[in-house]
Amino acid sequence: MKILSKISEEVVPLSGQQHIVLLVIVACIFQFALFYAPVLANEVSRGVNLAENSQNGSNSPIADFITNQLTTDQAQASETTPNNRLPEIPDREIKIIRESSHTITAYNSEAAQTDDSPCITANGFNVCSHGAEDTIAANFLPFGTQVLIPELFGDRVFTVRDRMNKRHANRIDIWFKDRQTAVNFGVKIAKIQVIE
To answer: How many domains would you assign to the chain?
Structure first.
């Protein structure tokens, strides 16, 4: 830093903005040199060594390297994501604050079931663009409260983002993407677990 400042003062006087731009450029060069260049060099070296040691008669070290890299990537992908599933997220410790039984219903984003902005919940969240069926409406829980309904949904975590008509003081309404799924859900009574 001191050397760079001294050079910028003595050789070419720089304004404050030019000095910052110069520092960013130098930082980017060092970032590449210290982190990416050795990794790239190692990969190329590994590919050339594999090509030299191969007995398959290929006449291109680069072709061997690419073939080997693709095979390695595919093997790693099959190990980490069996059956094309996403890798599992490590379990977090869930603390259950309270449990209670409630009537549970379902709704979807139709003006007839909500209001004139069916995708926007009472706290301003857009369930349509979010797309995941993890939003619930409940008048007796604060916004942002996380809830499990293990009897019906296992370990899926729902978040309170919406409200219901005031007459439903003790009910939970689950948002679904489409109307038919909500209709098929019907009315159920189940235990919920408020978690943190």
So the answer is: 2
